[in-house]
Sequence to fold (1334 residues):
Amino acid sequence: MTPQLILFIVLAALSVVGALSLILQKHPIHSALSLIVVMVALAGLYLLMGAEFVAAVQIIVYGGAIMVLFVFVIMLLNAGAEEYTNFSKLAGFAGVPLGIALTGFIAAAIARSAGTAQVSGSAAVLAPTRTISEMIFKDFVYPFELTSFLILVAIMGAIVLAAHKEE
Amino acid sequence: MVPVNYYVILSAVLFGLGVIAFVVKRNIISIFMSIELMLNAVNLAFVAFSQGMGKLDGQVFVLFVIVVAAAEAAVGLGIIILIARNRQSLNVERVDLLKL
Amino acid sequence: MTFLNAHAELLITLVKIALLLFIVLTVNAYLTWFERKVVARMQSRWGPHRVGPYGLLQPAADGLKFLFKEDPTPEGVDRVVYYLAPLLALALALTSLAVIPFGPEPLRFFGHDIYLSITPPDLNIGLLVLFAITALSVYGVALAGWSSNSKYPLLGGLRSSAQMVSYELALTLSVVGVLLMANSFNLKDIIVAQAQHPERGIFGWNIWPQIIGFLCFFTAAVAETNRVPFDLPEAESELVAGFHTEYASFKFAMFFIAEYTSMITVSCLCTIMFFGGWLSPFPASWTFTHYLPSAILIPFGLWLIWAGIRYETIFGRIILPGLGTVIALLGLTLAVFPGVNSFIQAPFWFLAKVFVFLFVYVWMRGTLPRFRYDQLMSFGWKVLLPVSIVNVVITSFIILLRSGWK
Amino acid sequence: MTAHPILDSLWIIPLLPLLGSATNGLFGKNWPNATVNTVAVGSTGLSFLAALEAVREFFQLPADQIPFVKAFFTWIEAGKFRAGFDLQIDQLTVVMLLVVTGVGWLIHIYSTGYMAHEGGYYRFFSYLNLFMFFMLILVLAANYVLLFVGWEGVGLSSYLLIGFYFLKKSASDAGKKAFIVNRIGDFGFMLGMFLLFRTFGTLDFQTLFHNVAQQGWHREPWGVFGTMTIACLLLFMGATGKSAQLPLYVWLPDAMEGPTPVSALIHAATMVTAGVYVVARSHVLFSLSETALAVVAVVGCATAFFAATIGLVQTDIKRVLAYSTVSQLGYMFLACGVGAFSAGIFHLMTHAFFKALLFLAAGSVIHAMGGEQDMRRMGGLSGKIKYTYGTMLIATLAIAGIPPLAGFFSKDAILLGAFKMEGGHPLYAVGLLTALLTSFYMFRLIFLTFHGKARYDEHHVHVHESPWSMLGPLAALAALSVIGGWVAAPALWGGTDFFAKFLAPIFGSGEGAEALSEMAARNLEWTLAGVAIASALIGLVLAWWMYLVRPDQPGKLAKSLRPAYKTLLNKYWVDELYAAAVVKPLLWISRQVLWQGVDVGIIDGTVNGIAHGTAGVGDGVRYAQSGNTRSYAVWVVIGAIVILSIIFFWPGSHATMGMVR
Fold:
């Protein structure tokens, strides 16, 4: 039981609990909060793996921007608790076992795989932030530019969608 | 040191939970959030693999995924706002015309 | 004893945390006092002067008041979130202080290096951590506004979340220039990068090349901390008290402390990134400036003694001279022991700069009017963001030129 | 810079008119006439100049480079079949090229004056340029496929131009008629191409003829229907369609519904001669089949006489010219049939000149008469429109075969060829008679139109001379009709039979070089020429006597042999015959069988059946498409699981998702 393992277990448990409560909570805000918990926990896991930059971005973008947007929209639309309708039960009946089955499959596949590789937790060794930036701006420069274009389009789309129609 | 598989199994579990959430939730926003959850699970797997292989491509890819997720959130929430305006409801059961 | 040696790092960190918390909370308390005094002077009033000499005990009184007031929980609030919000706000605000380095070289203590920051000084992503925390600190306000189940707080929450998300972009972008110049996220490196030419002193700081970046950053930071002139979330004239309308007594105090703490954090950030952190403004060769702290403290202590003797209340006549003596002695010590003197330089300058920024905060509070909401938004998106982007472009271009198109 | 820039880029010649057509057709709608003129006339003029330059360069080519073939790009390639966009230029092409571009250009200029007051000005010129393009493709093509492209293209533009006044029922009907009749011919033409390809494995002229020569294809004697004969006959079928020979001539007279310049350019000078061109082009094949040649000769001869007889009684000035065109084309085919190809081409050229001139002059007359086309309401115009009269008179003399005008030499050459061919005397006799008839009805036209007393209402119709834009081309064509013949003036007339020599490399100097002693040949030619001139003069005098001296004669004559007159007047009831024999049955079949039976019954039935079936299936499947997002999600999950399980439980699969070291 190295301290990393303890940390891992704690964070993993946190994330799983968060995901569960995302499902069980009736009110969207609570779901959002639990999702934020999951994300923070994942950021912790990234740190644990030494991917500090990803961890920071995870919190800044996911936690600080995307989820804020969600919360903002929920507050804006004043969304209430979920209501039950007949079909949804059926979907639940079908979906829950299926999801479990899916999880089981993937887990089993991993179990079958001969993966015993250890994650090197030392961040300083990799100094990833610099390397990552170099990769982004050298090897992945075209995808990078593409994403910038994607964002531009998304912005325009969002504006067009949410803009009030002029009567 | 933690074996990579732990991380990957965790991501699998989270993904499965995301799927279940997608199927079970009724509120559009919650469903959207479950999609984000799945994305996060995948990201976790990416980072785990990249660390395990000692290559950073996985992390770079995660960054791209995050960017795409941001864009998706922007547009998706815009659509959701529209739906809420036109349908006065956020329940997917009531939004089954596949159009606004 | 073995236990101590085994877990020395852990213990030291815990002690440091406790110490920092104590200091920060006290500073917060007296920051309120300072603010009230300064604003009063600006409005040619006395400000607090009943409780204690010069009203020095006013913060303590306020603290007691917060503790003992009734703490009602309104009907129909979402309890979990309602209680969570202030905790979140305060916790995040305090956490952000953890990465701030107050001085370069460690304190030797029983064979342990004790750095003047809670996190180890080689934290590569210090700045990112700060931004992450800032990003999360939206939730405190937003959730508070939502969970109160009341319209003014809701509006306040909406405003604050929108405002914070918008200004966060400018905040982050305006720093990129500095990062490019230091090419590191490490706060320590950023400071060190400004000391490349020790003989230049103040002219080596980032403020000169990054003046635009600084202006953007400071503006955005003020907006992030919901201070005047960007305090719309708690605009009392339109929203009663904004997001914390429904909060009373200590939960309100939490928001209060969180706000002032984030003020301190922002001041620290400005100091570190643009004003050379703990660096002295004078060229390194001017060693005599090392006596500046004592040169300030001793006269101040003497003045305090002199003024204290002539204070009207007995209590004051007892307290103030004592305080003055302490300060004067402190100055004297600094002057006498060269080791202490050289060690104290960095923290001294750091705190001095932070103090200046805090004063600027108060100053603005005293002078500037509040923005209108649409003005706020358009300013953030149409002025701040583009300007900071332009700043980034120019900076990187110049750096590229310097490096000779490598 | 190569020695022959234009030859290396021959495509420029057809391209220019195409550009003009495109420009006018796309943008010309709102342009002033002047602009449209500039584009249309300019493009054709430029291509005329290019053609001249090309010819100049052609003459400088060394003999071994003739014919000059240039492949620009491969158009169709399937198996061993290749049809390229290859252009070719040889002596024959040179003649056609000059005729087409030159006459075409003149007629463009003329049209600017003639069409000035018509609607759809830009449309007209767009079509006209389009025609030029296709005609040039036809002429320059180096293989049958490309030639067929031009062939169909000119058919199309002729259809468009005949139906130019598409609001007039008769015009659109005439257009359709021309199109359909031509299709019949094209059908044969295509069959011929297929047969040729199947036999020789290529459709490029040079390779094809070369193969023929290589395989030492023996000449198929009379009455033998070998491959070559059938192929030639099929090709000739196409030619009859395009060149309005029996039995497919019916469309040409109706084609006069189109504007007069169109009649001049397409239905007199160029397009209708395409058939002759094709026959001449594939003379190698024809000369290998006596049967085919005989058929060509007979058909040509018959058509010539037949059309001439009809022309005798027509009263519409343009229709007279139309029938004369048909009969002149008959002459050309006669020439080809008797193997006097160069004579045929020669007549083609001269005919292009004076027939175009005739039509243009007639157009000028109609223009002067304000749209009147019936000769019975004209007369005495000679004084009023002198230039038109003069030019038209020249043309008439030329076509009638009065020396030394162009028509005389060409017609003389043809008759000579016919006479020299063994067993050709009947053909010669009919040809001679036709010549007489020709001169008769042509002068009848002249006298009815320009002489005698005016038979029109002076008050309503005020005759006026046409603008110079119309008279200029008339003058130019008149000059050509005069001197055009001298290029082929035989030694007999002190000329050096340049034309035949020029074309000799293609057709061989064979024709007319029978074993006749020089002296005998001279005498023969003298006699024949004399006879021809005499017949022409007889026709002239006859017309003069009947229509000027005793204007009451024609009426009497018509009464006295009423049935013959009726027959001629109704063009031997050929149209009615076709209507009864072909059109009605076709209509019946298409209405009863194709429409009611096939279309409604089978096709619609199938389509509707499919539609109903689909709808039914849709009704069934609809329930899967609940539109509920989450149900879709469930389906996706199921699919994922299925795929995973396949990957997973596949025998011997080691699907792993973790780290594989």
